[in-house]
Amino acid sequence: xxxxxxxxxxxxxxxxxTGARRRRRTVAGALVIAALIGGAYxxxxxAAGPGxxxxxxxxxxxxxxxRSSSPPREPVRLPVGTIGHYAxxxxxxxxxxxxxxxxxxxxxxxxYPVIPPRAAGAARLARGLFPLLVFAxxxxxxxxxxxSLLRTWASAGYVVAAVNFPVTSCLARGPESDLVNQPxxxxxxxxxxxxxxxxRHGALAGLVDPAQIAVAGHSDGGDTVAAxxxxxxxxxxxxxxxxxxxxGEWPAMRGTYFPAGxxxxxxxxxxxxxxxxPSASLQMYRADRGTRFYLNLYGxxxxxxxxxxxxxxxxxxxxxxxxxxxxxxxQSAAGAVMARAGNVPGMAQLVHGGRxxx
Length: 358
Hints:
Elements: E1 41-42, E2 54-55, E3 62-63, E4 87-97, E5 104-115, E6 124-125, E7 130-136, H1 147-155, E8 159-164, H2 182-197, E9 208-218, H3 220-230, E10 241-245, E11 265-270, H4 278-287, E12 292-297, H5 313-327, H6 334-342, E13 348-352
Parallel strand pairs: 1-3, 7-8, 7-9, 9-10, 10-11, 11-12
Antiparallel strand pairs: 2-4, 4-5, 5-6, 5-8, 12-13
């Protein structure tokens, strides 16, 4: 969706689907690094991925375990789905793509599951495959603002790679119009994560299941994700499912939205969102003819349901995790759990298949 802030450059201001101009609030600063069991885990430097990928410098703190040996020849899928089952470590990557217009540097923070320490021992790497989830922040936002939600997904057994976009993040503060390039950025990060996982050394080696990939995004990041899975301009057929948090159809995208074959999508929307109105999410939900869900958050605004940990964020975290469990990890029982978690009197309603929220 086209959204602006009062201090964004003039070039960042565009009309959205309705032609109205809106203002975006900027969240200052990033959330504090997650407190893990037994101490804070920051990542050791990642092994260089194929092509232009190269690891960035890790933050301070106790290093995450190093995956120094080769991945197992026949890796197995490890248990996925229970929030809090794993401790969470972080790895910072600097990924550089080279499209025709010049290099785009994607600062990416990967949160991934590790086996919690026992007593005074150290955390251990989980030897096996986990699903991959690539996350897109909103306009003038950075991944740290979504730390609670990202940690929740990682603690349930997902490798979560969150991208700070090179033009529209809180670090760059460039024009919102660069959103048209962000679906390609997301596809590039997916390829790089698969390449890094396929390497022989490093904390992320042998960690990602290439058959289980999802994407999620908030606000302009939700627009990015919607284009990646639902617009003929930008489709990435490796993606098995998508989560669109307060997003919409971006008018400048060249293509047709929601062709046949769109993967399962969960649309999440606050009913009192002044930045991305419910009509924008409902437009996509109605247009999609595939497997789709709509989580209506009664009275919720634009940022709190996804940034922070106060209600209804725990409901969002639980419903999105169960959606991933069902449509990425393939757990059939997760559908019923998702339905129960998404229907909370006075707080949330989950509908599907074109049924409209009340």
